[in-house]
Amino acid sequence: MKYIPTIGIECHVQLATKTKLFSEVDNDARGKEPNSCVSPVDYALPGMLPRLNGEAVRLAILAGRAMNCKINLESRFDRKHYFYPDSPKGYQITQFYHPIIGAGYVELPSGKRVAIEHAHLEGDAGKLTHFDTYSLVDLNRVDTPLIEIVSMPDIHSAKDAHDYCKELWRLMVYAGVSYGDLYNGNMRFDVNVSIAPEGATELGTRTEVKNLNSFRSVERAAEYEIARQTKLLESGEKIIQETRGWSDATGKTTGQRSKEEAKDYRYMPEPDIPPIRLSSEFVEDESTKLPLMPADYRKKFGGKLAGDTLEVLLDYPELMRKLGEVADEGAVLLSNLFASVLLAEEKSAEYLNDLPSAEDLNELCKMNLDKELSSTATKDVFLHLFDPQMRGRGTRTIAKELGIIQENDMGALEVIVDIVLAKPETAKAQADFKAGEEKVIGFLVGQVMKESHGKANPSAVQEILRKKLS
Amino acid sequence: MEVNCDTIKHLAKLSNFSLSDAEIKSLGGDLNSIIGYISQLDELDVENIEPTYQVFEMENVWRADEILPQDATREQLLALTKEEKDNQIKVPKVL
Questions:
Q1: Does A285 reside within a domain?
Q2: Between B70, B85, B89, which is nearest A39 by CB?
Q3: ipTM for the complex?
């Protein structure tokens, strides 16, 4: 029997705010001492009053718009109660009943659409480290602002699950909603997988693989679950609804001890945070801050760039922003330079943080189009634009210093050609060419290039040679 | 709605409280009278009435996204915990 997989994904995105969701404490705890980014609010001391970070609301609007979602003009916070040492309050502040982001969709590069059910603002929990007989609690991450994006079960392959997560990453990073630093857990994915016989009207029993932090592990975990569930059903066994953990090392999911009791979060309205009420004008104003998004770049460059080059470049928002700034006629040349030269370099990460100015890049394209720079010379100058010693000097100065500007002045080139043709060692080649041996033209062009110290434009040289030898 | 012994045990477990049988019994009596009192509201017809989520009628209380120095130091906050280790709060092993 053929089984059709169905996948839904929940994604937690860490927002790029300076401070936490409910307190005026540094939100960036990377490399900081445990419990050093903590306020009495995060500590849940009696009498503490959480206050909502307005920037988180603005970023949520951008996130919603990036996913073509409706922004709910009225939204509220709720308390989700649970007892665990990662939450001193004893509850998480989240938006269970009235989320800020309503339904929408994400379009994958393949053109498929994944519907978004809703997305909401919430605070993160603290970090636990487990030892033999005890656990240690670091509250730096408590109430780091997150949006949780809940997709509909619209995905039917592990590859599409991968592409959906990657597209979400792009949307959040392009929109400036998140730094998207996967290594530091800025985006975490929970993947729900079920399978059902082809044609079935009801979905199968699902399992949830929690806390995946890369697109690759999303894809591998989904693949593994589809295969595991298929095998179970084929051998007549049942699938247990459970949470499973994924190990990158073993490439397997394993069942996690399920809590004996059914979840009972006792949601109630959060009385400390007054509701968010937005005007349509405010939402529109904020939405205009959305910069060019992947879909805009696909529209802009889609016809001109090879599709796979564009998709590679789209993984580098800094490059795309730069391409958006340069003149249209140079965009294709620069895209190819970025893709073939820059991304192949080991130092690409370093380069990406410090790209040349649009002005320098425009000049480079112009010199290439005007044939002042050969394609080799263009690459050479391009790389030198990243050289800390040279970069401030401007494209033309660099090209001059490198001595690789092509001679296009036909008069000057003719003089050089004449010198070469007057040399006795070229006499035989000239005679052979006139006798119809086409390929010796290469030797003659080479001689002229040598005489010009490599600065002559070879196609112009060939043109002059052909005229003189005809 | 009647609060029975099992409800209280369930709630106590969710909140990690340990309660003696005597406490469960006395809490049961208290909770039942509170709920009984509140239940008078059930007599009202609240069909089509928007629930009250917030009694102060405030909205959009937002603050600027600026890091401010905190009055309480890490040491002061950690001093409030039962046990600490390496600047972290030490708790019985949980998994």
A1: no
A2: B70
A3: 0.89
